[in-house]
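User: Here's a chain of 446 residues. Predict its fold as tokens.
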Amino acid sequence: MSMRPLRSSFAIPVALALASAAPAGAQTWNPNAPPDVVAKARAIHERVIALDTHDDIDPENFTPEKNYAQRLETQVNLPKMIEGGLDASFFVVYVGQPNPETTPDALTPAGYERAYQAAIAKFDAIHRLTEQIAPDKIELALTAADVRRINASGKKVALIGVENGYPIGENIARVKEFWDRGGRYLSLAHNGANQLSDSNTGERDGYKWDNGISPLGRQVIAEANRLGIMIDVSHPSKGSMMEAARFSAAPIIASHSAVRALCNVSRNMDDEQLRALAKNGGVIQMVAFASYIKTPKPDSAERAAALAALRRQFGLPEPGAGGPGGGGRAALDALTPDRRADYDRQAADIDRRLPGDPRATVADFVDHIDYAVKLIGIDHVGISSDFDGGGGVTGWRDASETFNVTLELVKRGYSEEQIGKLWSGNLLRVMDEAQKVGQRLQQSAK
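Assistant: Prediction complete.
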């Protein structure tokens, strides 16, 4: 039985929608860059495949009336990808991890079923985009060869990553179902331990599996290896990540993490983890998430009080007190659109009146790339944004500014070959290797 949704009868004038977007033209974040450097960077950016391994989605933006063929307020959509030269995106099937204290049935069949239905809604949304809404503009890739072929055809490339293995429940067959639906990487956990793995939040909240992976989680890794799904270690705990590097028969990835030596947060990877990742043959996709790139200086008392009052007004948790259900992001996502807009307006007003420490920039982001390249080598580092999931830095605020990353890399002396590896070559190598491992395992089982 096909896992893809049936093609519907509606049609969307995609060419008109894209033409009406009227892109203003991508701006370089560093206007003082020498013209010859900018020209060199633009030529390189045209030739490499710029692939972002982590972009969140909302199924409400994948409907006939409102979709990625239009220039939405989302950080990623087709007009912005075209404007910034972002060629390929892993759209993410993300399901948050409920806090068992507030959701007692989280780790029960009922909780797993809710999570599964939420995951399927996102799988279906991505298929609608590539099969019904804009099939002439973007196509789903299932292999690294697909990525290269689709890019060569002039279309944008969609891929699917699964952020959080929670929707698998205790049904190992769902790993195969997610593969059939197009999932090509899988993270065992998100923010909060689940039935498969401990999470990075265990550093604050404590561990369920002794800072590691459950027996069922090990079975999921084995099944993912058999199928050719890459194992993603960005959200699981350090102990879980280190176990995954040992257990996995194929190279692993960190789809959206940064360097802990430069920004000490639990979501980032320390030097021991980076070396283990490289030894495994994997790749860390450096994430342009401001608070993972730069540790901000403490707010003034006045600013801190204003932000605390705003959080109380909207019933949001204090920073670091969100628990394993996704913390601040989950609470913001739960607001109605009108209340979220009101929150954003008031937060922007506080930023104007009481500015905090300057936001991380593209240069700060590339500092993390530099660090990892020097520590573990150019073959084990890539690029991601976490757009529409909290990502973005000054200079790469959305897909329309993607070129600025290439410009900063050229300014620092990276060659075209190296930039090609960072933007997609390394990730596609791991994707190829994971699928070859899967083929070998399936052949040996016959």
